[in-house]
TrEMBL record:
A GO term for molecular function: oxidoreductase activity
Domain of life: Bacteria
Protein name, entry field: FAD-binding protein
Residues covered by the 4Fe-4S ferredoxin-type domain: 423-452
Keyword Iron-sulfur applies: yes
Gene3D superfamilies in UniProt: 3.30.70.20, FAD/NAD(P)-binding domain (3.50.50.60)
InterPro entries reported in the protein's UniProt record: 4Fe4S_Fe-S-bd, 4Fe4S_Fe_S_CS, FAD/NAD-bd_sf, FAD/NAD-binding_dom, Metab_Enz_Cyan_OpOx_G3PDH
Length: 525
């Protein structure tokens, strides 16, 4: 039986982060993962992360995965793939199936970082081929380059449903609707807004009544629900689709912790059955720790910090660092993690009906119910200003822990301040040089460079664009509103792509000047 100082189950963001911290301190570390490639969810995440520089903000998930893998290799971490851990027994004995063989390992400490699995909701036709989890669709697209379908309906408006809907559009799928039984959007407003302005309709307080088809999906019927989530007769709507994606939450994969005898609890705010742990992942069983979604559903940025905390705690537990060294490291990591747990979407605010931002500005009711901020609402936010010449217009309307726009602008045009969840401010007395870094850096694609009067009755709008084929200069089409409706004719007058933009192109369109504050997407003829 081979022995390791530390055995980690799961080579996702939290598991790799834990392995790096432990191995840096001289521990012999192995990571087991049942998949054929490491990185967990990171390599499916082609969008840019939120947070600050220390949280790897504005870096795409798969790039973060590459960085973690390189760090792990440099630290001497052993990663075993296609290795399914089937048991965690007394004295931290770990049983692993590799191919047709079963192997036994012993760890002086064990960290469980198995993540979470997708939830499913039952409806008539839920088991037809073509009904799949949003994560499965993301795997097909971003790992294997396969379109999940041609015409897709998305069920669920949390961040997963919103992000995957946008990625389906990027893959060339037609997303016919985004549906949620809840009365308001569950994820970040900026994610919803970038989907809505492409023309995808949102149906809140609706859910699937029936998926049609015999051997595959051919259509779906949705209907409105009342306050008790019961169908309202006569509200049915039918869509011809070949795919239904389901994004209705995640459940921690905590079976190994339960098997090991760790004290558990049912905690809906953390996603379900989770271990009872201290602030650094220590369970009730000596030498066993947990990190990431297995101990509570959060973002990947939080999971990476939790993994590092668990790695540090395990290192101190086994004597590879002193208690003082542990405290110094964990204090820094705790501060970083706490900054991500602030704002309107903080764990402490789950289930609360928040009606104002931290600045006292009324929340956009239209954004919550329809996915986009209405024209008569947008002007009340500090990122939306009017001035002569090119200037940033920042349509970020919720308190999200994110500040790369402030870091990206070296001209002082954008200010967030020391509070990472504050709404960004477009500074009136600043001078924009039209570099476009703020537009490309915004993970929510919520920044536009606007010149409200370029002469001849025209205005120009520079917007983020992540679709192929990229329109060429001179291309004509329609400018779409925040709702995704055509509002006026538009012409592409400039296209910019740069390595510094990290695959976000900047599209500058010319529109009649009365639409300068309304046109937010371009659709070619």
């Amino acid at each position: 039986m081979e022995r390791f100082d530390l055995i980690i189950v799961g080579a996702g963001p939290s598991g790799l982060s834990a392995a790096i911290e432990a191995a840096k301190r001289g521990m012999k570390v192995v990571v087991f993962d049942e998949n054929a490639r490491p990185g967990g969810q990171l390599f499916k995440q082609i969008h840019k992360f939120f947070g600050s520089k220390e949280h790897k903000a504005k870096i795409r998930g798969f790039h973060i995965g590459e960085q973690l893998l390189q760090e792990a290799r440099d630290a001497g971490v052993k990663v075993e793939l296609n290795a399914t851990v089937v048991g965690l027994y007394q004295d931290r004995e770990v049983v692993v199936r590799m191919g047709e063989e079963v192997h036994h390992f012993k760890g002086d400490a064990v960290i469980i970082a198995t993540g979470a699995s997708e939830n499913m909701v039952l409806f008539d036709g839920w088991n037809l081929p073509g009904v799949m989890g949003a994560g499965a669709a993301q795997t097909l697209m971003n790992l294997y380059g396969v379109k999940p379908g041609e015409k897709v309906l998305m069920l669920g408006s949390g961040n997963v449903g919103l992000v995957v809907s946008f990625q389906l559009l990027q893959a060339g799928c037609d997303v016919v609707a985004l549906v949620d039984a809840a009365p308001k959007i569950g994820g970040y407003g900026v994610h919803a807004a970038k989907v809505a302005r492409t023309g995808v309709p949102f149906y809140l307080s609706h859910t699937i009544k029936k998926v049609e088809g015999t051997d595959h999906v051919t259509g779906v019927t949705i209907a409105q629900v009342d306050n008790h989530f019961q169908f309202i007769e006569g509200t049915e709507k039918h869509f011809d689709v070949d795919t239904v994606c389901v994004a209705v939450g995640l459940s921690p994969m905590s079976q190994l912790l339960k098997m090991a005898g760790c004290e558990m609890e049912d905690n809906p705010k953390r996603g379900g059955q989770v271990p009872i742990i201290d602030d650094y992942g220590k369970t009730s069983v000596p030498g066993i720790f947990s990190a990431g979604d297995v101990s509570g559903i959060e973002e990947a940025s939080s999971a990476m910090i939790e993994g590092r905390m668990a790695g540090v705690a395990a290192a101190e537990y086994l004597g590879f660092m002193t208690a003082d060294e542990k405290k110094t490291e964990l204090d820094k990591l705790s501060t970083s993690l706490e900054s991500l747990r602030q704002g309107m979407f903080a764990p402490k605010n789950r289930g609360k009906n928040i009606t104002e931002t931290e600045e006292g500005i009324p929340i956009s009711t239209n954004l919550l119910s329809k996915g986009f901020v209405a024209d008569d609402e947008i002007e009340r936010y500090p990122g939306v200003i009017h001035k002569a010449g090119i200037h940033p217009v920042i349509e970020c309307t919720q308190n999200i822990p994110c500040n790369p726009c402030q870091d990206a602008c070296n001209q002082g045009c954008i200010s967030i301040g020391d509070n990472i969840t504050a709404l960004p401010i477009s500074v009136k007395d600043s001078k924009c040089i039209n570099c476009g870094m703020c537009v490309a850096s915004c993970p929510g694609q919520a920044i536009f460079l606007v010149d409200e009067d370029t002469g001849d009755g025209k205005a120009s709008i520079t917007l983020p664009y992540e679709f192929l084929p990229l329109p060429e200069v001179g291309a004509k089409g329609k400018a779409l509103s925040r709702k995704g409706e055509p509002v006026c004719d538009a012409e592409v007058v400039k296209v910019r792509s740069s390595k510094a933009f990290d695959n976000t192109s900047l599209l500058t369109i010319s529109v009649p000047k009365e639409y300068a504050m309304k046109a937010r997407f371009f659709k070619a003829e």
